[in-house]
Amino acid sequence: MADTIESRLEAAGVTLPEAAAPAANYVPTVTYGAILQTSGQLPMDQGALAVIGKLGAEVDVATGQKAAKLCAVNVLAQAKSALGGDLSKIGRLLKLTVFVASDPSFTEQHKVANGASDFMVEILGEKGRHARSAVGVPALPMNAAVEVEATFEIA
Question: Ranges for the Endoribonuclease L-PSP/chorismate mutase-like domain (predicted)?
Fold first, then answer.
C-alpha cells in the first residue's frame, strides 16, 4: 500500500468519524483561496464528549493529550469533508491552535497540545509540521477539556 494519509490513519488504527455538524451559528470550515480553516473541534468520540473538566484539577496531562488527539482526529474529519473526501489535497498543516481548559495554576498547556501535534505529524508526515499556539482558558463549550482548530494549505 502506498504511503498516504489514509494508509497512515489505518496503520495508526484511526477511523475518521463523519464530520460533526456545527453546534451553533457557524460553519465547520471556511475555504479561502488555497487556505482551509476549521472551526474548533472538541474531543468527541462516537458522538459523545470524551474528556470534560479542567487540566490541573479533574484532568491530568496524559488524559489531556488523549483529548487533544481526539480533537485532531475531528479536525481531520472536517478537513476531509471540506476537501470532498480527499485528504491528499492537504498541502500542509500551517497552524494548530489548542485551547486547554485550565485550573489557574496549570502551566503545561504545551504538553497537552503535543497530543494533537504529535498525531498530526504522525499522520501527515512532513506536511504535518506546523506552527502552534497552546492557550490556557478558564472554560470551553460543554465543559470540554480541550478544543483544537487548524489552518491548512490546500495543494
Answer: 6-147
